[in-house]
Amino acid sequence: MTALPEEFARIARHFRPLAGPAGLGLRDDAAMLEPPAGRALVFTADAMVAGVHFLATDPPGLIARKLLRVNLSDIAAMSAEPLGYLVTLSVPHGTDDAWFASFAAGLAADQAEFRVSLLGGDTTATPGPLTLSLTAIGHVAPGGALRRVGALPGDALFVSGTIGDGALGLRVLQGKLDDPTGALADRYHLPRPRLGLRLGGLASAGLDVSDGLVQDVGHLCRAGGLGAVIEAARVPLSDAAREAGPAWLETILTGGDDYELAFSVSPERAVELRAAAAASGIQVTRIGRFEAGAPEVRVLGTGGAELHFARSGWSHF
Amino acid sequence: MTALPEEFARIARHFRPLAGPAGLGLRDDAAMLEPPAGRALVFTADAMVAGVHFLATDPPGLIARKLLRVNLSDIAAMSAEPLGYLVTLSVPHGTDDAWFASFAAGLAADQAEFRVSLLGGDTTATPGPLTLSLTAIGHVAPGGALRRVGALPGDALFVSGTIGDGALGLRVLQGKLDDPTGALADRYHLPRPRLGLRLGGLASAGLDVSDGLVQDVGHLCRAGGLGAVIEAARVPLSDAAREAGPAWLETILTGGDDYELAFSVSPERAVELRAAAAASGIQVTRIGRFEAGAPEVRVLGTGGAELHFARSGWSHF
Question: Does A167 share its domain with A294?
């Protein structure tokens, strides 16, 4: 009987400490979890490729945390709470142990912050770029999930946090924009899934903004069969985004990588929404409204004139 | 509002028909599933890379089915029943619509065979080889899962089906071996997850054989803190593997890609095992035993002499 391949030692060293009881120490063929009684489960999966979704030279811990967080943002978008995740890594030959240690340390930091644990996964070699895939699992009261369908004419359009920082952060990393405080690059590297904001049963529809605000609000329009108006001047900006100046408005509204929530709320529920936002410590801002009509998003400038952009959002192809 | 990116049309065209009710038409940020009452859930994920786990020129439908089946084999290894899956695809630029249609048709065929549905996923571009990741979800009675830990000295070692066909099939595709009937290549392309064989509460331990019989039985030894003996002459071979001849014994026992179950059964439960096997229509064969001692696997030849191999199994690195 020869020694075990290095793969098993690597899993034991770096990933086993991340597994909770359900992960069975990553020693079995699958994880096993007794789901919370009376709750529905939510599932989401996203892949990330070096050179497409992150830079191969990014710190491995930041890559790991972004991978986890973009999936947790989808859990937040359903107004669910996270339980755990599985991750697969296809890594270039020669990836060293320090890389894995750093990647796992990033996951460990976010596991503590978001109270999730590793359920399982797979590592394999690739002749291509580092390619990662993560499946996140959450739970929500049956019927309590936030869906994309449900916005009604007259509902207000809200977003959480600030918009555009992630997209501007990518431009910073590409050398196209200054970022004296580092705030923009930080937002690109490290999304903040809005897990604390309980919108289930309160917002009429919602999603997370990952492909660009205009495009993602368009999803709410198509799902609900109605139009939306965004008032550009109301879109909440960080100090750093405001510093960038008006030339970056299109990037802010269409660039993606926000991982904020966009959602519709009936005017009668506005007080409840303020209370939910205050309880979560997450800022919410009304940026427009839904209206009867074709499923289109109109963006209005300060004078009320419609703005037109060359592209509405980010395509993964 | 510009047209939606091609990505969304592709998802609607090829993947939406695969989604069951829990997949919410792949229109939301996550799938939502009310788990079967009183059942534990099992989760497993595997990645596959073109040029490593399959050939880039393999028919897309076969790639899809292999990806799903290797994960269903892990569900079977826990003696669980499958519920659904999420899949992420990182595809080279220029991958055409016909490729996606064929990939989805493969999934559709296996969804019907194994009664699972698509819960969600992601597609993204890659400058590298086609890279796939799939997470499968199953359910099992709490306490009824088959684990790797639990084999006891005196337990018999069994395998399902036949061993070595997948590994020989790879050699066929590499031009190293003839395969007049095509049976070996077929087993390599299309594993048969042994979902019907109910071993929970009957076998004392078990797993699926994916990295090579010797190495995987070694996992049962390490988990249980005991040794195992495999009698090479008892290992069940297909007609095609037997045709290959004795020169291929090492490949058969260490090559991997079997996706059969290896498991330990107390001698008193032998009659029950025969009944379970008969009920499932899956052949099971006793190939050796577990014994007190160091966690090692010894392979004995026909005369009882120990056989030694250069390698014990497949490493993913």
Answer: yes
Q: Which residues pair with B90 in a beta bridge?
A: B124, B131
d(CA A126, CA A95): 10
pLDDT digits (tens, 9 = 90+) for A100-158: 999 999 999 999 999 999 999 999 999 999 999 999 999 999 888 999 999 999 999 99
Q: Is the pLDDT of residue B7 over 90?
A: no
CATH of the domain at B75: 3.30.1330.10
Cβ of residue B33 closer than 8 Å to a chain A Cβ:
yes
Question: Are A20 and A81 part of one and the same domain?
Answer: yes
Q: B42 — contact with chain A (CB < 8 Å)?
A: yes
Domain residues for the domain of B90 are: 6-140
In 3D, which of A193, A199, A194 has the Cα closest to residue A150?
Answer: A199
Asked whether residue A80 falls in the same domain as residue A177, the answer is no
Chain B: give the shortest CA distance to residue A225, in Å: 14
Rg (CA), chain B: 21
Q: Is the pLDDT of residue B236 over 60?
A: yes
Rounded Cα distance, A23 and A260, in Å? 30
Chain A CB contacts of B4 under 8 Å are 215, 218
The span from the CA of A208 to the CA of B281, in Å, is 48
The reported pLDDT for the residue numbered A42 is 95
Flag whether residue A137 sits within 8 Å of chain B, measured between CB atoms: yes
CATH number for position A249: 3.90.650.10
Residue B65 and residue B33 share a domain: yes
Nearest-angstrom CA–CA distance, B111 and B196: 15
- ipTM of the complex as predicted: 0.91
Is residue A188 located within the same domain as residue A228? yes
Q: Which residues contact A86 (CB under 8 A, 6 or more apart)?
A: A31, A118, A119, A120, A121, A134, A135, B43, B44, B45, B135
The answer to whether residues A81 and A190 belong to one domain is: no
Burial group, residue B311, by CB count within 10 angstroms (0-12, 13-18, 19+): middle
Residue contact B126–A121, C-beta within 8 A = no
The span from the CA of B58 to the CA of B46, in Å, is 19
Residue A145 lies in a domain: no
- Whether B86 sits inside 8 A of A45 (CB atoms) is yes
- pLDDT for residue B2: 38
Query: How far apart are the CA of B181 and the nearest CA of chain A, in angstroms?
Result: 32
Between CA A45 and CA A84 the distance in angstroms is 12
